Amino acid sequence: MKTIATFGASGGTIVQEFMRAITQGQKPESVSPNDHEHDNEEACIANISPRERVKRLIGGVIPFVLALAILTWLISTNADRLWRLPLFFLFVAAASGFFQWRDKT
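and the corresponding structure tokens:
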């Protein structure tokens, strides 16, 4: 079994790359899991610009933070657990934005 460990070109965490992307307007080059998926050495080319990738990342971070805030409020007020169920859609939206940013699509 072959194990590949990949790290971003900057060696930073996702949070550091996110902060750089917001302040500089572009995201530094990084390696996504799909880059090493093909054994025939085909390149994975991003089909969106760095600016659009930042928009997708922000579109993933905002629903995630909003869902966490609502979840924290629901738990602290001892609301019925069924009220937490609609938060699933916010978490799915957050995951969608994050994975689109990470996979450069």
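(Above: one complete record from the training split.) The first helix runs from residue 14 to 24.
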